[in-house]
Amino acid sequence: MRKFFIPSKDNDYKPFLLRRAALSVYTILLLLVNTFGGLVGIPEVMASSVTPSNIIGLTNQQRAAAGLNTLNVDSRLTAAAQAKANNMFSEQYWDHFGPNGETPWMFISQAGYQYVYAGENLAKGFRTAEGVHEAWMASPTHRDNIMSGNYKDIGVAVVEGELLGKQTTLVVQMFGNLTSQTFKADAPVKSETTKPKATIVESGQIKSISITSPKVGDLIKDANVNIKGITKNITGNYSVEILNNGEYVGEVESSSSQWEYDKGSDWEEGEKRIIAQVKGQDIKSEQVIFTIDSSPPIFSKESIVVKRTDTEFIISFKVPVDAQSIQFVTGDKTFDLEVDEEGNAVLGISREDIGGRSIIIIADAAGNISEHDISEYFLDGDEVTQGTPSLILWFRNIIGTTDGISLAIVSFVFILLSIEVYVYWKKGMLGKSAGGLFTIGAWWLIILVGVFKGFGGIIN
User: Fold this and answer.
1) What keyword terms does UniProt attach to this protein (predicted)?
2) Cα gap 26→406, rounded to integer Å
3) What is d(CA 454, CA 167) in angstroms, rounded to the nearest whole number?
4) In CATH, what is the architecture of 52-177?
5) For 209-218, how does the pLDDT look when each residue is reduced to its tens digit (9 = 90+)?
6) pLDDT, tens digit, for every residue of 376-390?
7) Looking at the domain that runs over 208-292, which CATH code has it been given?
8) CA–CA separation, 6 vs 17, rounded Å?
């Protein structure tokens, strides 16, 4: 095996896996995978980092940095985004408006989201969530959507398929607001640079502290929520201690009437009973009870049963106990599911209504979303499909993507090349072998550039 990997006398200091014949094999393999990979079920786009959660996270980070409100994930907007992506694939168009009069607002309304404000961003062909977000931020119209104070909710879908003859990944970002309430960036806090004037404290003033955020009864899905509050008639520097169920959590210093405590790590899920008190003084706030729920509903895919009849599919599955809304999205259609007394959801849907992709979207009371692609259950096959994905999809997941295969080959050659350079250097043969190393290195660099040439995309 050493003859294949490491330069030595036995292979005339030319590893078999770096000879011209081997490089020819690598080149042919790369051409076959990248040219005909789609025909054997290997997707072209490697989009593991382009996920709805990553897109939403980058959006909210950008808004928070500008002092804007963070957007809440709304299952209806998620369903609308999914339906829009499916419709672009089924009707083969790349635009905000479809060939049959489809509009972004149509998908949003059909999902049950009766908006006052709404917007949409589109992207395709990107390999990373950061690439999508940076492209949107570089476009004034897309940036206006991301940074708009008109929006309160967000829904994102990331769908892979063939569009206009090319395998690609579509990203649909939907924004909305059910009310006329808008938001503005927080005004920066100005530091006091002049000596404050002396004031006379009137007799009878009461020192107090209160918690302004979260509110009593809030159900919060952000486990990194900060505790905010105000004090009255407390001057100078002071410390605020935070207690949860009577136990010390932490403290924060302040010199103004406003204070904010950042725990520095995520709160555990569950009910919180928070009290704020001024350290060293008998000044306490009213107790604020709120609940943190940051986990999406846990869904058992093994519970799915899909039965076929001549005219329809009958879908049934066990519903998570914390599910508040359940939707089934297929093609450009969205169906709301109801739960029976035994905790099961059942839906009958005609064969004509099944689209290219079928997804179950489950949301809990806090707005945490879990999405489950069950497209494989509607492929041609057995009369009853129960908890077993198709062999085709399983094989496709094992194979990976054309990008993944290309990067694996390039990385493998780079490792071999590094070993060869090291051995030549140790034996003092680097100068004599410079020509051969240059040839292999140039080949490797050209292939590397070819692999990464498509790591960009288009926005709309």
Assistant:
1) Membrane, Transmembrane, Transmembrane helix
2) 9
3) 12
4) 3-Layer(aba) Sandwich (3.40)
5) 999 999 999 9
6) 777 654 433 444 444
7) 2.60.40.10
8) 9
